[in-house]
Amino acid sequence: MAGEKPPVILEGIGLVREYPGRAGLLRRAQPNRALKGVDLQLRRGSTLSVVGETGCGKSTLGRILTLIDPMTDGELIVDGEQVDIRRHHLSRELRRKVRIVFQSPYGSLNPRKKIGDALGQELLLNTSLDATERRVRVGDMLERVGLQRDHAGRYPHMFSGGQRQRIAIARALMVNPKILILDEPVSALDLSVQAKVLNLLADLQREFGLSYVFISHDLSVVRRISDEVMVMNSGEVVERGTCEDIFANPSHPYTRQLLASTPSTDPDAIAARLARHAERRARAASQTTGDERD
Ligand SMILES: Nc1ncnc2c1ncn2[C@@H]1O[C@H](COP(=O)(O)OP(=O)(O)OP(=O)(O)O)[C@@H](O)[C@H]1O
Ligand SMILES: [Mg+2]
């Protein structure tokens, strides 16, 4: 479709992140440059995927974009506001604009905290809503992500993996962010559950006008959901473009290699695979009882 592109809501220019290296017997510590000058632009309401093999710097980039980690060098502009490089003086308002969802919500959800309290805490810290208002908002959001209001009284271990990921998404959305950084958000889930969570993310994106940075090593997922893709290798972007272009004409050898090493990046094959999987799950579910929903 022709027309003007939406405005850029998140921009990184020359992002560098160095971690301190370890010294050897006869050698001084060399810093490990996890990001070597990464540029990126995320447009409002769109999904930019970041792909690449393990250790290429995807999560490091995600943490910098979420303002969790400082960068060593570069410029970061969030919704028109330049971010202080060392993250001093970051306003609460700025932090609220970008939220992250990790691969394993088990790691990020406190096992001893009821999920209603975990979600409510976001509102307690960031809004002036009273307890009743917070409870209502938490219930609304749980329903919005496909759970039930009374799930607020449960602990994280009382949910399935897919449900926990829904909770993590709900928590990220409590303060009405504009941008979500999704770091391998479905990688730990079964294929059929993956599809449902991806559908949920797509619905939420449309409903709230959200912009996503979707970090993944799974190209079949990336192909389904991205507007633009950037391919990283060893802390550098080696190729970027629209999703169609990258998959139709990968120009960098690394991208070609990445595509070739993915079992199937053909959308019809993926749809068929998901359908087969869903069928198997449905058959298995009909043989057991239980009301768990992923
Ligand atoms: N806190 C840290 N301290 C030191 N080095 C780190 C730290 N976090 C990441 N690194 C290093 O930075 C590089 C990039 O790591 P990162 O976790 O960003 O990769 P990734 O692309 O997310 O990998 P994966 O696909 O396995 O999640 C790696 O060499 C890693 O060892
Ligand atoms: Mg990672």
TrEMBL record:
Belongs to the ABC transporter superfamily. It comes from the Bacteria. One of its GO terms (molecular function) is ATP hydrolysis activity. It is found in: Cell inner membrane. Keywords: ATP-binding, Nucleotide-binding, Transport. InterPro entries: AAA+_ATPase (IPR003593), ABC_transp_ATP-bind (IPR050319), ABC_transporter-like_ATP-bd (IPR003439), ABC_transporter-like_CS (IPR017871), Oligopep_ABC_C (IPR013563), P-loop_NTPase (IPR027417). Pfam families: ABC_tran, oligo_HPY. One of its GO terms (cellular component) is plasma membrane. This is Peptide ABC transporter ATP-binding protein. GO terms for biological process: peptide transport; transmembrane transport. The keyword Iron does not apply. Residues 10-259 form the ABC transporter domain. It is a peripheral membrane protein.
